Structure formats: C-alpha cells, structure tokens
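Database export, one record per block. Field names are fixed; values are copied verbatim from the stored entry.
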Amino acid sequence: MKALIGLGNPEVKYATTRHNTGFLIMDEIMRERKIVLGEKFNSFFAKSGDLLYLLPKTYMNLSGNAVIEMMNFYKLTNKDILVIYDDATIEFGTFRLKKNGSFGGHNGIKSIIERLGTDVFDRLKVGVGPVPKGWEINNFVLGNFTKEELENIRKLGKYALDLTDCWLKEGIETAQNRFNRKMI
C-alpha cells in the first residue's frame, strides 16, 4: 500500500494560494482517476485499491499529525509515501523529486519530519517561485496564483498524474530521471 499526500490549508480563502499547490496538484490527479474524497484522519481522504489519498485538514504547520495517524492505521513506513507541496525557491513549473532532506523552511514538511522522526521519505516539490524582489516569502506563498499560473498548475497536475504512476510502478529513481525538470 502507498499514499499520495498533498499539503495545503483547508479554508476556501487559501484555495488558490501558492501554499495550496499540494492540494491543487492532488485535485487534478484525483479528478483524472475519478477519486471521491471522504473524511478520515482529520483529512480529506480516499482509498482506491492499494493507493491512499490524503489532504490534511490540520493546516500546513500541523500536517504531520494527519500523516502519522494515517500511516499508523495502515501500518505504512516512510518509504510508502509521496508528499506533494509548493517550493518558492524553485522556478515556477519545475518538479523536484527527492528521497530525503531538510524541511527547507517549509513548515508542513517540518511537521512531517518531526512526527515521523526522520527526513527520509519521498517528496515532490513543485516550483512556484521565485519570490519577487522585496516580497516576504510568507506573503508570497499565501498570495493567490494569477489566472494564467492557476491554469498552468492544473496542467502540472496532469504531468503529476504520470509522475505518480511512474513512482508507483518503477520507483523514485526512475521518476526522478524522467520528471526532475521544468515541466511548463
């Protein structure tokens, strides 16, 4: 069993912000796979075959609470998850798959690392940057995408569908070789 986890904030006012990129990418993946979410683990959640879909409702800074609850219930290890989230230090439209690493200033990842007790888990960073000169990073990531950016995020979601299929069937190394690049 594997899990795809998208990070974001659950309130409508955050729906189209850069910090909700994980939710937006997951929305496209689930739309293409015709996945209907319910609620479990203080999250929007679905199970389809051996694949779990999780969008924590705990807000970004406490994402690890929902992730660890689901992992404990299904007896998943840190090698069974792929976390999808925004990265303002990477150029918009770029995918970066990693197997481990620090939280890099991202509080959702920090929370997951703290709850798992390890930084070793697969993650897909989706570039939403760069932060414009003179902007605070928090204001930038909590700002809304432009209409054009939002359309491109939806296109990235379709690429992420192929990426997650590759990750599931062939592993992270193959997925890194195919998808670690600017997609748009």
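Remark 1: The chain has a mean pLDDT of 97.
Remark 2: The longest helix spans residues 147-170.
End of record.
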